Amino acid sequence: MPERQQRVQALYEIALTIGGKETLTETADAALAGYLRKLNCSVGGIFRATETGYTPTATIPADPAGNALLSAGIERLAELSSDGFPSHTEPTAGDHCYLFSLPDFGALVIGKQGGEIDTATRSALTPLNEKLAEACRNKLVERQLREQRNRFEAVFDAIPEPVADTVVEDGTEEIIASNAEFERTFGDTDETPGTAMVPEITDTGESTQHSRPIDTDDGDHRITTETSCETVDGTEEFLFHGVPVAGDQADEYIHLYVDITDQKRRADELRRYERLVENLPIGVYRTTPGPDGEFKLVNQGLVDILEADSKAYFENRSVSEIYADPDERAAFSDRLLEEGTVDNVELQFETADGNQIWGEVSGIVTETDDGPVFELALQDITARKERDQQLDVLNRVLRHNLRNALNVIDGNAAMLNAAIEDDELQSHVKRIERRVSNLEALSEKAVTVRSLFDQGRSTTTACDIQALLMRVSNELEECHPDARVVVDAPEQSLYVNADVRLKMALAELVNNAVVHNNRSTPEVTLTTETVTRDGEQAVEIVITDNGPGIPKHERKAIESGEETPLQHGTGLGLWLVYWAMSLLGGDIHINDADPGTRIALRLPQAGGDAQSQPDGGTGVAVNSGD
Amino acid sequence: MKLAYSSATGDALRNELTSLATQEHVRGLLVLATPSVDITTDDFETTLRSMSVPVCGGLFPQVIVDGEPRASGVLAIGLPTAPTVTVVSELSEADDDLDATLPAEGSEAAFVFVDAHADANGVGSLIDALFRTYSVGLSVVGGGAGRLDGGDEPCLFTGDGVIKDAAVMVTIDQPIGIGVRHGWNEVAGPFRVTDADGGMIRELDGEPACEVYQEAIETNTDTTLHREDFFETATAHPFGISRLDGEPIVRDPFAVDGDAISCFGPVPEGEFVTVLAGDPDSLIGAAEQAAETALTEEPITDSAGTLCVFDCISRQLYLDEIFEREVAAINDDGWPMVGALTIGEIANDGTGHLDYYNKTAVVAAVSDSA
């Protein structure tokens, strides 16, 4: 065969090996093998030009470092400028290496051991090299696009919300790709979930498919709307975003479904809470701090308490203006800022009608993007304050006016008793003196009762029950030598959270058990035991007597917690016990005994190792009822 | 290299192979069997498994022992360095992933044998993978194993047993010189292969391949092609795939099916083929030239060793009685000559491209010293 024909044929066959492969590496591999086979060469490589030099795309052999001829070619390539192609090197006699440019891609290196490639063939390779460069460039672009697509698909799958790629054809929208979360949420489906999105996407007119308004941009058909969709777990609420994909396929869209079921549920819950707050009979409001303060939110309760026409009353009005003394607002603001929270602060306010009222304010400081704000609750306590005033007056009447009058009566009765000799008249005077004495005692007890409430509902002291019972027992026996008091308490001390009011209650009960006893030797037994009360440890103090028992109407008044004109006690003794226990967080149980009465007082137990520490291990002071 | 030839079977064969394997300086066995040996028997497999050194080989139409072709018996070649044996299974399904299964570089040379009846594309993939991986860094010789009339029988084996539709590769550390020549000359063409798959050519220049082939032969030679004796005629007129600066690569047509011609080895669609013809002198001269090339390569000159010849069985069929002249032309008095008559040959000559040939004489001068 003529040499020229053979060359043309070989070049044609090399051309067949260029292109048609899946990847850049496969394309380069196949073409390089074709070059070497048809040119009867032994080594070679296709290299891509990068900013840092040439990187191999394909080489034969796979490890070029092991072949001296190819290594020499690569070294030459590294030194070659872009206008230095084609180039040739002969590192050892008879071994030739040829370097060709692959325009806009890189270079082709071919090595032939023991021979040369003739000049005509080398020249004829130029169009093949350009074809190879084009094929490599195309595959490189394809690879970059593939990598971009892979990245996109990775992102697509990594999105934690359902995402679908859809195409609209002939008015029908079909899913062509979706991420794993989409299939997990909606199952394996070709149809878009929820109400059809096609009308919204393809029409620029108003939507009638959704109850919620749709944010659309008529220019690019993007839509955002809330929609209900059937999922594998049932009907759920989603915020739907439909975005058109820019490109040749004008009717391709990306659908994103954000599950807002929980969000909507929380929003509904929040609305219910808002309604609840709005309708509370107390004032709930939010203000800025400071001596004046600005209303940020008020509820209807505050409007009602402050006798305003509407919430508008609070607009452009400083908070200090609702204070009876505006200076108190500054003090309150400073205190709340310092303490972070306040409870039951009693303040005087002035209503829109100019009436002064008492309010009890509780609140906290909350941090917002705009700085701290006060979240406050105001309760109208005007009526309670007025009752407190009435009690104060009555207390004064009992303690002062009534006792003064009784002293006068008692003194006059004593003089009368001394002046008359008639026995019957003297018995009348004695009866007056006894009644006066009872009234004085009642007046004293009323003062004592009043003092119970002065100390409030909480106590910070732990009381040693054993020591308390011994003290009460000793004091009673001193006053009533003929009475017998037995204390049957365990040696190991028990502690309860209580103060002197417990001793007052016990003394009242033990004293009543003796005073109202009709036996020659009144007997009172005091015992203790630990019990469970509402799931917590408690101490039960039991007072048992051998008396006639408590009258039924007295017990009923205590057990029901109220007196009526037809159902009332004869004094304040049992009420004193009832209120003391209530204020200390305890309760009272009255039962018949045989003979007598069994009264149990139950109080929360303080720390178990309290006896080993001065403060009872509870961080509170320890006492024995004083 | 230590050699042993035996026409024994069973225990006797096992004893002879064991005897060779246990000789000093024998680290592995290259075993070339002829069709007289039933390699599919349990007995033969037991023999393979019983060897104390790595074993690798195949069954070939004939073997060459002491410079003479033998149609029976077993030739065993003791390899002086421990070989690495690699098996490529399911060769017909082989693809570009083959590269990863090949052993790392480091050896001087390798004998590679393929199942000649495996799919031609698979054989092509293996050859491509070998060249991509090693290029001329590894001198490769070998050929296609199997029976001329066979098809599906196992024809390769290692110490683990016999296999089919596979390739075996054994690397050695001895340098070798390789000569590859065939002596066939172009008589017609070129013809563009317009429809082909693997080794099957359906169309040449857009016409039925068999018609084009027949016309080329009958126009350019005195021969008449008859379908009924296609193999006999085709033996004298192979195809040639041309390459620059080298003998064309021969493809041996062995069967016709309708208008399609089947060849040993792949014929890529789009390439050009010529029709070749030869004469005894040119073929024998080429074989002699191959031997000279092998013996005069740089690492081999002035050293002692063994000539391993892989000559195509179709050359023997073509040359018939005068094939002994070709063997004699290759034979060098100073070098023991062993080898096989193969169905297709594999070689690179240390400078050029690795290829799968037909109707070619491949001579490897294997040095005794590593």
UniProtKB/TrEMBL annotation, chain A:
A Pfam family the protein falls into: HATPase_c
InterPro entries to which the protein is assigned, alphabetical: BphY/WalK/GraS-like, HATPase_C_sf, HATPase_dom, His_kinase_dom, PAC, PAS, PAS-assoc_C, PAS-like_dom_sf
E.C. number: 2.7.13.3
Protein name, per record: histidine kinase
Ranges for region Disordered: 199-222, 606-626
Keyword Membrane found: yes
Domain PAC: 343-393
Keywords carried by this UniProt record: ATP-binding, Kinase, Membrane, Nucleotide-binding, Transferase, Transmembrane, Transmembrane helix, Two-component regulatory system
Recorded catalytic activity of this chain's protein: ATP + protein L-histidine = ADP + protein N-phospho-L-histidine
Keyword check for Membrane: yes
Enzyme class, first EC level, given as a word: transferase
Domain called Histidine kinase: residue spans: 397-607
UniProtKB/TrEMBL annotation, chain B:
Xref: PANTHER family: BLR0328 PROTEIN
Domain FIST C-domain per the UniProt entry, residue ranges: 209-349
Protein name: Histidine kinase
InterPro entries hit by this protein: FIST_C (IPR019494), FIST_domain_N (IPR013702)
Domain FIST: 25-208
